[in-house]
Design brief:
The complex is a heterodimer of chains A (1152) and B (193). With 1152 residues, chain A is an alpha/beta fold. Chain A has eight domains: 3-108 and 317-327 and 498-572, 3-Layer(bba) Sandwich (FAD/NAD(P)-binding domain), CATH 3.50.50; 122-173, no CATH class; 185-294, Rossmann fold (3-Layer(aba) Sandwich); 329-496, FAD/NAD(P)-binding domain (3-Layer(bba) Sandwich); 591-715, Rossmann fold (3-Layer(aba) Sandwich); 727-839 and 993-1064, 3-Layer(bba) Sandwich (FAD/NAD(P)-binding domain), CATH 3.50.50.60; 844-989, FAD/NAD(P)-binding domain (3-Layer(bba) Sandwich); 1071-1126, Alpha-Beta Plaits (2-Layer Sandwich), CATH 3.30.70. In chain A, strands 1, 2, 3, 4, 5, 15 and 26 form a seven-stranded mixed β-sheet that branches. A five-stranded parallel β-sheet of chain A has the order 11-10-12-13-14, with helices on both faces. In chain A, helix 19 runs antiparallel to helix 29. The longest helix of chain A is centred in the middle third of the chain and has 23 residues, at 546-568. The two termini of chain A are 56 Å apart. The relative contact order of chain A is 0.09. Chain B is mostly helical and 193 residues long. Chain B folds into two domains: 15-109, Fumarate Reductase Iron-sulfur Protein, Chain B, domain 2 (Orthogonal Bundle); 110-193, no CATH class. Chain B is 56% helix and 0% strand. Chain B is built from ten helices and no strands. Chain B starts with 20 loop residues before the first helix and ends with a helix. The chains are: A alpha/beta (1152), B mainly alpha (193). Chains A and B meet through strand 22, helix 24, strand 43 and strand 46 of A and helix 2 and helix 3 of B.
Chain lengths: 1152, 193
């Protein structure tokens, strides 16, 4: 039967996970697939992300209904009841239309049965193969049977069949028989061979028979077709192309008619490749080059057999598809024109890619976070970073900026400083430091001024081996002097490339790719691909960092969610019944303790009888039951029967892999009417493996302790029901009617919820209404007109113009807000979610003669005048632009993001109208991330002259006869230059609109620059700490139209997640305040990382928003009076757990 | 040159002292997309001997400082190894730009530049005549063309060194005139409108 899902998400990297979670939280069933054997994409390899320089992936976990997913480290695993994960799985085809796609998947076998693998590692120990370890980016080696990442949960070994030598030692070494190479099946796997080649007919049957395959050799196609027709159950046909072309084709066609799905391998002699290519299109599976050599052909065929019998195909019916296959890092060895030889990559042990360096900095990396050179072990103390390796290079088809490498290098430099306690010298060689995000410039400044990272604007290009195995880097500085410096290590900041499988994936999904091989998207519909119902998330459409990927993923999720609703209707909206649990608070605790005994190592390493005996003496334990294989359905049923019999009110399960079992407790709870909070799973598996952890008795004792501790914790668990759930008002409020606000409103309204859109001005549109054309050549005027019309006509959107919010109370799911209109009427609104999109404006410029001289304009003014014709390009004799006016230095130390792109689009417009017009651009770093780099190249090519300046040496502007005279130092010429243009255009940048009042009304924060402060700049980019309030557009940070559209759509989906719920209830572990003990010192308020606590002045008490509280326990730790307690972690409970841990064994010694 | 203050740039439509405005515009077109990364300078084997680094020279061309460019010896020192062209991330044909500058300078009125071009002219003439370089002949004609009686003395030590190593070639050889058709074809092509 075909499985049905709301959406299929291809690629389980960070973008795919975000999109899947957004959809799952909205109530859609999601299939999440990835071609790799592990989740997390490239982020599994990166331990540190700026600006915190830590990981923080767990911040992405659901905050509402959080007990529906496991609340564990997200790098280790993802468990959500609405998400099914298929690893090692690729999309092979996508048929049908939005709302009802049929997706074909192929799931590659890992040859290790995950239900049996106990991750003991014996297989890898005996494996003779050594290949570069992908997890460590090629530093270090792994066996053919390996753990793809060391930290996954559950973590099972996989066989890399391509590198397997077929020695079968792992199969023999496996204590649980988990590795299956299908030895038994060979004797039933009939292979037919058709070949006129006597040598093949003579040799091949013998070779294959030796491997136990029954072989049926024939010299003519007709003969084999006859025997197939007569009932030969042949699974593989080897078809020699030395047959005549017509015979080969007929045999293939007939054979596939007789046995659809038959695997046909074409034996291709040199010169027959074209015939082979034609037949591959007709359904042949693979080609095998002739002449055949026993040493290569037999393993190849044997592996093909294993694949054929082990791989599975899946068919899914899905409403929408999200492609999030991410990107791959450029590799210096990749192409013939790769730069490995110039940069000594692979020739000198001190040259790394940025990914390799990231692994060197990781505790799970090859050197355990000691910065040492692999090979000679020399400590790395002088490290250089080289930017733009494989980016911004037209010769490598990379006329784009990878957007991520600048910040990665700054982070790595800071990290290197920290790992070496400031000892390392870090130098970054760059062309433009692209710190285009809101807070990136400050991070860079900190790196430069506080950490002491050196930034050198140069592109060294030859690296030479020096004495003492040093690396000599030669470069010419701007003054034209040759410099040479010695380094221990060189890190190549490698750019992003489309994934290697892109071509196949694009073909399978039926989407187009752009000139650079990334998924084609349009600037004004950036979450959509060329195929309706298929969306692009993460870095699939354009290179992006984590923040950008997550916003893009949120927007893709919104697109998919809308598509599912529009095309599938209410089919999925069967309300799920809320489980009801018996109130056991007045009962004596009765613990059922079950032990999973399937694991063979358990019986070997632990004295089960003694363990059982000791468990029976524990207080409250009514029964100790042994359940074989708790991880299987049978085991689980047995467990349920035991529970029904013993009628416990607490259940403790000792098994492996609690992460996997915990989600199933909910299921059990529904059957037994017992709150899953009163059940627990303890890992009794790791302790039995813990290497040199003593003898059998000690292990038994340790396992017993673990169980006793969990039992003590369960005894003390508070069985009283959770606080009442909040009823959600299914309506949203959007503040701000600009591009972002309107897009967000449309995103929510299209999914069937009411939206109230409040705009302060008389008209909708905001800042974007001032745009006349875009860099990509779209028509923003028309786009905005359409959008305004759609918003005003949408029956679900109620627009309040000339209105403002005057009061807002409440919390996620249930806000009450008062809105005053210009006419003096007030509306009271109940809404479940709020989106703030208060926008921004062009910064006001009063220097450089603006507003004094007519010849000084801002970029936006120039754009408007060019559009209306009052500036005539052909009548000008020269024009100058000054970028970064007052941006990127204190007061406004952020990149305004849009000015470089405005400048580029104005330059291209001017040059189109008057190619001879001299244009001079004074800039600090041109910020043209992603594919806008292409327009930078174009602008240079069109003849505009770009002159770099530094904040210490900015261009001077004077006016003579009303015309600007600009004097500046050109660093390349090393001389002062003076230009006398007709027009001076200032890139004044953007400022947020004054949002202080709005922020206070909704209880959200602002950054020092007045933008909205999101909950977490990387992992929760459109959320506020205050749950249920979201931000998007320019108010969140400087953004282009594309960025605003994406963040608006992402915010809309975040809001829909809440609106879609009928009730919002808190998790099991939340903090509570014992008001009689509380001294209102307020320390818990500042320490709470989720902003869940506040001082209620009216009632004079500290209140906890139980929806916001994530049960981290920081408040409990900081409270001087023990007034704050954490449900599930009360003092007495924790003490009891400690007692249990230290308890003497009956009649035994105290544990050391 | 270093840190010298250049005359203020003005927007002259015609490059002032440029020998061939159309030719110069072509060279400018070649280097317009340059982003001053300096890869050309870093990869140039002769950069150490140049008075302007290639990067700076391209920059001057873009600014229209033609006089300074033609006063420099940078482009004369280009040995056409094509490393810069190969490595330029913008894919600019920089060696062609160097060659164009040589051509323009040789055709201009500047006496010093015409003199610098003499070596190239004599070299090509020699190759055309002999089908390969015939060093003694080249030396003879070059000194003659330079009209500087002291110049041969200056080169004597180098000449002796080459002689000792057997690097000087005294006439003969079977290739004489072998390249004449090639040169003829080029002349014919150049004469086309």
């Amino acid at each position: 039967m075909k499985k049905e899902y709301g959406a299929l998400v291809v690629g389980a990297g960070i973008g795919g996970i975000r999109a899947a979670l957004d959809l799952a939280e909205t109530g859609h069933k999601v299939a999440l697939i990835d071609a790799r054997p592990s989740l997390g994409g490239i982020l599994t390899q990166l331990d540190h992300q700026f600006p915190t320089d830590h990981c923080g992936m767990c911040k992405m976990l659901p905050l509402t209904q959080r007990d529906q997913s496991s609340q564990y480290c997200l790098r280790k695993g993802l468990f959500h009841k609405n998400i099914d994960i298929y690893l090692n799985t690729e999309l092979t085809g996508l048929e049908g239309d939005p709302g009802k796609f049929h997706a074909g998947l192929r799931r590659r076998s890992t040859f290790v049965d995950p239900s049996r693998c106990v991750s003991c590692g014996k297989c890898a120990e005996v494996c003779p193969v050594r290949v570069p370890n992908e997890f460590n980016a090629g530093l270090g080696e792994r066996a053919a049977v390996h753990l793809p990442v060391p930290h996954n949960i559950p973590n099972h070994y996989v066989v890399d069949l391509d590198n397997c030598q077929r020695c079968w030692r792992c199969h023999e070494a496996c204590p649980t028989g988990a590795i299956d190479f299908k030895f038994e099946g060979r004797k039933d796997f009939h292979v037919a061979v058709v070949s006129p080649d006597q040598e093949i007919i003579a040799n091949l049957p013998g070779w294959l028979t030796a491997e136990n395959f029954p072989v049926h050799p024939e010299t003519a196609g007709e003969a084999v077709l006859d025997s197939i027709a007569a009932g030969l159950d042949c699974k593989l046909l080897l078809l020699d192309l030395d047959l005549s072309e017509a015979e080969a084709e007929r045999t293939l066609r007939r054979a596939l008619e007789l046995r659809p799905g038959l695997a046909v391998v074409l034996l291709t002699a040199p010169g027959k490749e074209e015939t082979a290519a034609a037949l591959l299109k007709q359904g042949a599976r693979e080609t095998l080059a002739k002449p055949l050599d026993q040493r290569t052909a037999v393993p190849w065929l044997d592996k093909l057999y294993m694949r054929l019998v082990s791989d599975r195909t899946l068919d899914l019916e899905v409403g929408a598809v999200i492609l999030a296959a991410g990107f791959e890092c450029f590799h210096p060895n990749d192409r013939p024109q790769g730069c490995a030889d110039l940069l000594l990559y692979g020739q000198h042990p001190g040259v790394f890619t940025s990914l390799e360096f990231e692994r060197l900095c990781s505790s799970t990396g090859p050197s355990g976070a000691r910065l040492e050179r692999p090979g000679d072990g020399k400590p790395l103390r002088r490290i250089a970073w080289l930017q733009c390796v494989g980016s911004r290079d037209v010769k490598q088809n990379a006329d784009f900026c990878s957007s991520i490498c600048c910040m990665i290098s700054v982070k790595e430099a800071v990290l290197a400083k920290r790992l070496t306690h400031g000892e390392a010298e870090a130098t970054i060689f760059y062309m433009d430091m692209r710190t285009f995000g809101r807070d990136y410039q400050r991070y860079r400044d900190e790196a430069e001024n506080q950490a002491g990272v050196r930034f050198v604007p140069a592109r060294p290009h030859t690296i030479l081996p020096g004495p003492d195995n040093d690396l000599l880097i030669q470069y010419y500085d701007y003054s034209g002097a040759l410099r040479e410096e010695a380094f221990d290590a060189l890190v190549l900041a490698v750019g992003a490339r489309p994934p290697k499988s892109m071509e196949r994936l694009a073909l399978a999904a039926g989407v187009e790719v752009n000139d650079w091989g990334f998924c084609a998207t349009k600037a004004l519909s950036p979450n959509r691909t060329s195929r309706l119902g298929v969306f692009a998330a993460g870095a699939f459409g354009e290179p992006a960092d984590i923040r950008g990927s997550l916003i893009q993923a949120g927007a893709a999720a919104m697109g998919a969610s809308r598509m599912i609703r529009v095309y599938r209707g209410p089919r999925e909206e069967v309300p799920e019944e809320e489980p009801e649990y018996t109130d056991v608070s007045r009962e004596e605790p009765r613990v059922l303790l079950t032990l999973c005994t399937s694991c063979p190592t358990l019986a070997h390493n632990v004295d089960l009888a003694a363990l059982r005996a000791r468990m029976e003496t524990l207080p409250g334990v009514v029964k100790v039951a042994e359940v074989p294989t708790a991880c299987t359905r049978e085991g689980w049923d047995l467990l349920r029967r035991e529970a029904e019999e013993a009628k416990p009110n607490r259940i403790l399960i000792g098994a492996c892999l609690p992460y996997v079992h915990v989600p199933r407790l909910r299921e059990l709870g529904e059957v037994l009417k017992l709150n899953p909070a009163l059940m627990d799973v303890v890992d009794i598996h790791t302790a039995t493996f813990a290497g040199g952890n003593g003898d059998r008795a000690a292990r038994t004792c340790e396992t017993a302790s673990l169980l006793a501790m969990a039992s003590a914790k369960l005894l003390g668990a508070d069985p009283s029901p959770l606080p009442q759930a909040t009823v959600v008002s299914p309506q949203a409020l959007v503040v701000g009617g600009g591009l972002a606000g309107m897009t967000a409103a449309m995103g929510i309204a299209d999914q069937g919820f009411k939206v109230v859109l409040v705009e302060e001005a008389e008209n909708l549109g905001g800042l974007t209404m001032n745009l006349r054309y875009t860099l990509e050549g779209d028509d923003p005027v028309r786009f905005m007109e359409d959008l305004v019309e759609q918003v005003e006509k949408n029956p679900n959107i109620h627009v309040l113009k000339d209105s403002r919010v005057v009061l807002s109370r409440g919390r996620a799911g249930r806000f009450v807000t008062v809105i005053a209109t210009g006419e003096g009427t007030a509306h009271t609104l109940h809404h479940g979610a709020t989106i703030l999109a208060t926008g921004g404006h062009e910064a006001r410029v009063y220097e450089y003669g603006n507003r004094v001289h007519k010849c000084v304009l801002t970029q936006m003014e120039l754009e408007q005048r060019l559009a209306e014709g009052s500036v005539d390009a052909s009548g000008l004799s020269g024009l100058a632009m000054i970028q970064c006016w007052r941006s990127r230095e204190e007061e406004r130390n952020y990149c305004s993001r849009i000015c470089c792109q405005s400048a580029l689009k104005n330059i291209l417009m001017l040059k189109r109208r008057n190619p001879e017009l001299p244009i001079f651009v004074f800039y600090r770093d041109i910020m043209s991330p992603g594919f806008s780099e292409h327009f930078y190249t174009e602008a240079r090519r069109s003849g505009a002259v770009f002159i770099r300046y530094t904040p210490q040496n900015r261009p001077k502007v004077e006016f003579e006869e009303g015309k600007p005279v600009i004097t500046a130092l050109d660093p390349v010429l090393g001389a002062e230059i003076q230009v006398r243009p007709d027009l001076l255009v200032l890139s004044s940048g953007v400022e947020p609109n004054d949002a202080a009042e709005t922020a206070e009304l909704f209880g959200v924060g602002l950054t020092a620059d007045g933008f909205f402060q999101e909950a977490e700049s990387k992992w929760r980019p459109v959320d506020f700490l205050k749950h249920g309030v979201f931000a998007c557009g320019l108010a969140l940070g400087p953004s282009t139209m594309r960025d605003s559209l994406l963040s608006a759509k992402a915010a809309a989906q975040r809001a829909v997640r809440i609106l879609n719920e009928k009730h919002l209830s808190c998790g099991n572990v939340v903090a509570e305040v014992r008001h009689s003990l509380c001294s209102r010192c307020g320390r818990c308020i500042s320490v709470c990382p989720y902003g869940a606590r506040s001082l209620d002045l009216d009632r004079d008490m500290i209140v906890v928003d139980d929806l916001l509280c994530q049960g981290c326990g920081s408040c409990t730790a900081v409270c001087p009076n023990s007034a704050t307690v954490l449900r599930g972690f009360r003092d007495e409970q924790v003490m009891a757990v400690i007692d249990a841990a230290l308890a003497r064994e009956p009649g035994g010694e105290a544990r050391p | 040159m270093k840190n010298a203050t250049l005359p203020p740039l003005t927007f002259l439509r015609e490059p002032g002292a440029a020998p061939d405005p159309a030719g110069l515009a072509e060279v400018q077109d070649i280097v317009r997309a340059c982003m001053q990364c300096g890869t050309c300078t870093a990869s140039c084997p002769n950069a150490h001997a140049m008075d302007l680094t290639p990067r700076r020279m391209w920059r001057m061309l873009l600014f229209g400082l033609f006089e300074e460019v033609f006063q420099s010896r940078t482009f004369w020192l280009c040995s056409a190894c094509y490393t810069c062209t190969l490595r330029c991330p913008r894919g600019l044909p920089l060696t062609a730009a160097m060659a164009a500058l040589k051509r323009l300078a040789a055709a201009g009125d500047d006496a010093a530049n015409r003199k610098k071009a003499l070596f190239y002219q004599e070299f090509m003439r020699n190759v055309e005549k002999n089908g390969r370089v015939q060093e003694t002949g080249l030396m003879f004609h070059y000194f003659l063309a330079m009209r500087d009686p002291l110049l041969p003395l200056e080169y004597t030590p180098l000449g002796l060194k080459l002689l000792r190593k057997g690097k000087l070639h005294f006439g003969g050889g079977g290739q004489r005139g072998a390249l004449a058709p090639l040169f003829g074809k080029v002349r014919e092509m150049e004469a086309r409108p």
